[in-house]
Amino acid sequence: MTYQVILPAAGQGKRMGAGKNKLLLELNGVPVLIHTLRVFEQDKACSKIIVALHPQDEKEFKDLLIKFHVTKAIHFVPGGKERQDSIYNALKTVETVGVILVHDAARPFICKEHIDRLTQMAEETGAAILGVPVKDTIKKVQDGTVVETVERSSLWAVQTPQAFRISLLMEAYQRAEIDHYLGTDDASLVERLGYPVTMVEGDYDNIKLTTPEDLYFAEAILEKRKHLE
Ligand code: CTP
Ligand code: MG
User: Fold this and answer.
1) How far does residue 209's CA lie from ligand 2's centre (Å)?
2) CB 33 within 8 A of CB 54
3) Distance 187 CA to ligand 1 centre (A)
4) Which ligand is nearest to the CA of 25?
5) What is the domain-level CATH number for residue 53?
6) Radius of gyration for the chain, computed over Cα atoms and rounded to the nearest angstrom
7) pLDDT interval class at 103 (50, 70, 90)
8) What's the confidence (pLDDT) of residue 144?
9) Is the pLDDT of residue 123 over 80?
10) Rounded to an integer, what distance in angstroms lies between the CA atom of residue 225 and that of residue 91?
């Protein structure tokens, strides 16, 4: 079965502090954006790729597609103020049947196996997200004092991709717009409709490049993969 994917890429990378969009930073000589795009370019099940980008990055992004020989058609839409706005802009341009994936362009280590499991699950249940069990003990803190140690066994750290039947995600975004609701991920918009979301276990390599330390982890993951090839 096929799917379409939205790649939000219109952020500013403020926490990375590189002075430019972090997706332009290179890992092994290849920009993060291209690492992520290649996964979907090589996946035959991926029928459409929509990238939300900031107008100031447009020329550089398009030049990179040529430089790194990306041959699959990439559709660009303008990003918005928040990640949710960027995704909504993209969602308005997709074919309205089937499954849609939303995947942060800043997660270049997503693998085909997890995309397949997620897509299949979303087709069956309507909504499925990738995540991993939390390894740390998590405490709730107020004004510097611990108020609660949260039971860890039920905690999961959520990643992307998140996959949905397109009609469901569209409804969730329309509802969020009406209610002026801003969620921290796409699934939360679906959850508030009362719709069940299935958790699919991914792996700890699927990190989001957020702060400068993450670049060290990224180099290590690439090195590990080199030895596995
Ligand atoms: N994103 C987007 N539109 C926005 C904000 C973010 O498309 N208005 C994208 C980013 O480009 C990134 C993904 O959403 O691929 C996840 O966001 P995040 O990791 O927060 O990236 P940035 O917003 O770029 O980083 P920061 O919050 O540190 O500025
Ligand atoms: Mg951000």
Assistant:
1) 11
2) no
3) 17
4) 1
5) 3.90.550.10
6) 18
7) very high
8) 98
9) yes
10) 33
